[in-house]
């Protein structure tokens, strides 16, 4: 059973460590607007920007190249850089779309990326970062389902940037935006499945 | 000008000038998430007050030297539209009164937003009074608090604010403009309902100890209703989507 909580709502009558919450006295309170899952004791935020964490997979655009240091635009206000290897055979260019992971956040100011992969072609979609977990789904069910039906390859960045390439990019985009909009509604995977089935049928 | 010479009768036959009881709020309507460009927004109609609040951020602190590596910075701008009331608001830009209200509002939210979650960043809060009829700072704080929650900014609580005061020897809740101008004391308060922490208390005029106690009691009682409306406004936004999603099934 999941219910919507707002800041200041009591989620537990005892101190408990939980994301998006805080402890005051002997109680745990919600710190953001979200869905509180009583069984798993977690708050899934419904609003809010991305807060970078180490090992987050992100998608960005190379914005500047200087001595094999790449500055990457993650649509986030902090500077993010990727230090290239000295012996690169195919250096990246300005405008390349890359997927990378966060290695470190230096002085809480600069995001250092590593394990980069260039994404060629395709389309980028920007969604609210708070909806990304729902777009991926439990064990990636949601995103795999969309990719399978639309015969696309989809990569999701925690910063709210999604990259799609393949056959029916339009339908995949529509499905992703529908998930973003209805992220808090139960039984979404089923509904998206029905929508995709219907749409792919009429296309043939 | 408000003076003793032209003071109207504020209480007639145990009722106030607009027919309310002493501890009665004006009708309040709150809506969340009505501005698309803002990260969070709220619109409040509080009697004749019409107030729009918008929140942007967390974003890069500008100018850069104000950035704090330990916490976020809150900037607040309260402004009355030139057409908002009968008094003169002709010139653009903040005046003395607006600067003061911006400052106290900022301090309210500095104590309720979990600033350490957003180091090196800035959160902008805008409160725009479209139509003012007394108690705009209280209504503005109430609106801004909903807008902050709507932006998904980590907060300890949803703050509400309301004013209480004294007309002659009667303690009265939620002044409108006329009562505000001619009353003996006016006291806006902002409160975090979780533990009734007082985040703002200003006073014009004077109250004795018993009157102050009575006024605070009235504010806390009215706060339950305001809090309920704030919560409802935030949740309503989602239930609307949920309903339409189920309808399309």
Describe the structure in your own words.
The complex is a heterodimer of chains A (204) and B (249). Chain A is built from four helices and 14 strands. The mean pLDDT of chain A is 87. In chain A, helix 3 runs antiparallel to helix 4. A five-stranded mixed beta barrel of chain A has the order 7-8-9-11-10. Chain A folds into three domains: 2-45, OB fold (Dihydrolipoamide Acetyltransferase, E2P); 57-119, OB fold (Dihydrolipoamide Acetyltransferase, E2P) (Beta Barrel); 123-203, Ribosomal Protein S8, Chain: A, domain 1. Chain A is α+β, with helices and mostly antiparallel strands and 204 residues long. In chain A, a hairpin with a 2-residue loop joins strand 3 and strand 4 (27-30). Chain A has helices at residues 132-136, 141-150, 169-181, 188-203, and strands at 2-5, 10-12, 21-24, 27-30, 34-37, 42-45, 57-66, 69-73, 79-83, 97-106, 110-119, 123-126, 152-156, 161-166. In chain B, helix 1 links the parallel strand 6 and strand 7. Chain B has helices at 96-110, 136-150, 177-182, 209-247, and strands at 11-12, 15-16, 28-32, 40-46, 49-60, 73-80, 121-131, 160-167, 170-173, 185-192, 197-201, 204-205. The radius of gyration of chain B is 19 Å and the shape is globular. Chain B has one domain (27-247): 2-Layer Sandwich (Ribosomal Protein S5, domain 2). Chain A binds chain B through residues 4, 6-9, 20, 22, 24, 29, 31-33, 45-49, 51, 77-78, 107-109, 130, 181-182, 184-185, 191, and chain B through 39-40, 58-60, 69, 114, 117-121, 149-158, 192-195, 230-231, 234-235, 238, 241-242, 245-246, 249.
Quick recap of the structure?
With 204 residues, chain A is an alpha+beta fold.
How would the blueprint of this fold be written?
The complex is a heterodimer of chains A (204) and B (249).
Chain A: E1 2-5, E2 10-12, E3 21-24, E4 27-30, E5 34-37, E6 42-45, E7 57-66, E8 69-73, E9 79-83, E10 97-106, E11 110-119, E12 123-126, H1 132-136, H2 141-150, E13 152-156, E14 161-166, H3 169-181, H4 188-203
Helix pairs in contact in A: 2-3, 2-4, 3-4
Chain B: E1 11-12, E2 15-16, E3 28-32, E4 40-46, E5 49-60, E6 73-80, H1 96-110, E7 121-131, H2 136-150, E8 160-167, E9 170-173, H3 177-182, E10 185-192, E11 197-201, E12 204-205, H4 209-247
Parallel strand pairs in B: 6-7
Antiparallel strand pairs in B: 1-2, 3-4, 4-5, 5-7, 8-9, 8-10, 10-11, 10-12
């Amino acid at each position: 059973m999941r219910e919507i909580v707002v800041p200041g709502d009591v989620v537990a009558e005892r101190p408990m460590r939980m994301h998006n919450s805080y402890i005051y006295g002997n109680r745990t309170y919600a710190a953001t607007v979200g869905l509180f899952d009583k069984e798993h004791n977690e708050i899934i935020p419904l609003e809010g920007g991305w807060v970078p964490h180490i090992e987050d997979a992100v998608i960005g655009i190379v914005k500047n190249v200087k001595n094999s240091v790449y500055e990457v635009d993650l649509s986030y206000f902090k500077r993010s850089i990727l230090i290239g290897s000295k012996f690169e055979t195919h250096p990246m260019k300005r405008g390349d779309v890359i997927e990378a992971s966060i290695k470190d956040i230096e002085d809480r100011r600069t995001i250092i990326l590593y394990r980069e992969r260039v994404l060629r072609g395709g389309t980028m979609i920007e969604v609210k970062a708070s909806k990304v977990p729902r777009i991926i789904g439990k064990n990636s069910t949601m995103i795999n389902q969309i990719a399978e039906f639309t015969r696309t390859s989809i990569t999701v960045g925690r910063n709210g940037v999604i990259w799609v390439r393949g056959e029916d990019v339009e339908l995949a985009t529509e499905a992703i935006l529908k998930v973003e909009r209805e992220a808090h509604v139960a039984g979404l995977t089923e509904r998206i499945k029905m929508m995709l089935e219907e749409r792919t049928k009429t296309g043939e | 000008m408000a003076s003793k010479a032209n003071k109207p009768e504020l209480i007639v036959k145990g009722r106030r000038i607009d027919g309310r009881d002493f501890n009665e709020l004006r009708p309040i309507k709150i809506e969340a998430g009505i501005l698309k460009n803002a990260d969070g927004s709220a619109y409040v109609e509080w009697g004749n007050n019409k107030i729009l609040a918008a929140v942007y951020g967390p974003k890069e602190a500008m100018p850069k030297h104000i950035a704090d590596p330990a916490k976020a910075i809150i900037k607040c701008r309260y402004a009355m539209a030139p057409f908002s009331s009968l008094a003169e608001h002709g010139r653009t830009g903040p005046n003395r009164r607006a600067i003061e209200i911006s400052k106290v509002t900022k301090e309210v939210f500095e104590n309720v937003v979990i600033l350490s979650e957003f180091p090196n960043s800035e959160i902008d809060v805008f409160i725009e009074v479209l139509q003012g009829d007394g108690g705009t700072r209280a209504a503005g704080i109430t609106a801004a608090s909903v807008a902050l929650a709507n932006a998904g900014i980590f907060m300890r609580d949803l703050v509400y604010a309301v004013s209480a005061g004294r007309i002659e020897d009667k303690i009265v809740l939620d002044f409108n403009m006329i009562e505000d101008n001619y009353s003996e004391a006016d006291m806006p308060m902002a409160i975090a309902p979780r533990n009734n922490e007082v985040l703002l208390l200003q006073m014009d005029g004077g109250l004795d100890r018993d009157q102050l106690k009575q006024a605070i009691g009235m504010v806390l009682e009215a706060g339950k209703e305001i809090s309920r409306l704030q919560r409802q406004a935030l949740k309503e936004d989602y239930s609307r989507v949920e309903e339409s999603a189920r309808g399309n099934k």
